Each structure stands twice: as structure tokens, then as C-alpha cells.
């Protein structure tokens, strides 16, 4: 039971990193990223390949995951600069599917659908409970570090400028803000955070395969950020842990339904997740932690 709880906490921490990534790109910058699973996968594969095949240390693999995902975020963002904002959502969704299909078909690069097994972990797996505790500690440190960074950014001139870009690009540009630069920086940083989440997840499971990065992950993270509050780091973190708790609790609730097959249980879980979101948005339309009104500097 303790191992199961630790596993849920590690997954919750990974989702908290993904939620903070989405909070930065969507809640703070107004950039709808439907390809979150793609950057998640890039980070996992970058770290898994570098540590398994090139035998680099795990911390270096984490850094490479952040750099690769951030670079991909820059490419995706710059490719949509001349398009309307809603096209970014379409491009990122297509990007995530391209990443998954490449990982599935380019056997020489990613080992195809067989995936990469034996990915080095933070602690030896034969240490039992300490393996889960060590991974949880690493994940919590990562969540705390990203949370602290985002808090600093949120209250900095950069964060205020980014909110101005989100509210009205034209007004921000007239005020002398480089809209393109702010968007690219925010999207690249958000992609790097998602890549870090993928790397931690890959080293925890010791296995990376295309089926782990379905679009459903992006939907789950949108649910977490929407429920928690899409413009506050604390809301993203709380929403992610609550989502995992809700998903795991529905696993047991659906088993109590009489005469329901395993496939129907999975569908029933998704129904319960949707009903939970409707309930939260009905009671708290702005999420559990709505965005605070911003004060002008010096006031």
C-alpha cells in the first residue's frame, strides 16, 4: 500500500510539472499548447537515449531533456508567428502526433514500439521502498524549483509584460514590448519544463515507449490547470495532485459497479473525470485559486 501511495505521489509530481508548464504557456502567456504530450515525450526520449546508450550521468540526461524540449518549443513557436493564435493549438497538436509517430516508426532511432527499456533510475530499483522515496524526493525538488522560478517570474517585470501580451498584443506592442520575444521565451521555457517532467517519468518507470504519450495526457493536464487555476503556479500544482487523487479513487469506485466490463470501467472513469470538472467549474469558474488582480509597481 505504501509503495502504491508513493507511486501516485511521483505521478502527481510529474503531472504538477506538466501543469506548471501549461500554466506558463496558456495561463500566463495565452498560448494554447495542445502538444504538451509531444514535449513530454521529447524529454523522456532525450534523457533515456543519452543515459542508456551514451551512458551519460542521469543529471546530464535531465539537462539534455530540458534543452531538447526547449529547442523544439522555439521551433514550433517561431513556425506559427505569422499565423493567428488559434493556429498554434493546431500546430502543437500535430507536432505531438508527429513526435509519437516518429517514435513508433523510426526503429533505428527510438527502438520503435518496443520502446527503450532499462533506463537508468535515480536509485537502484532493488532498494525497494528507498527507490520510490528517492524518486519522489527528486520529483518534489523539481516541482519546488519550478514553482519558485515561476513565482519569481510572475512578479517580475517580465511576468507583467507577458500578462500584457496575453491581454492585448497590440497595446503591448504600442507600449514598446517585443511581443514575439516574450511569446518565444515563455513557450520555450514551458516546453523545457514539460521535457523535465518526461525525463523524470522515464527514469522512474525505466521504460519509454510511444504508447505512454497519448493525447489524453494533454487533456488531463488541461483539466488539472483549469480546476486549480490557470494563471497561478500554486493552482496548477494543487490541480495536478487533486487530478491524480481523483483518477486513482475512480479506479476503485468503478470496480464496485456491478456487471461492468474492464473496458466499460475505463469509460466510466473518464465520465467521472468529466463530471468532476463540470462540478468544479460550476462552483469555481475561475478555478480553486483564481488569478489575483495585479497592482502597479510601487503601489
TrEMBL record:
The chain crosses the membrane at residues 26-48, 60-81, 129-149, 186-204, 216-246. It is found in: Cell membrane. Pfam families: BPD_transp_2. Its main location: membrane. Keywords: Cell membrane, Membrane, Transmembrane, Transmembrane helix. It comes from Pseudoroseomonas ludipueritiae. This is Branched-chain amino acid ABC transporter permease. It is a multi-pass membrane protein.
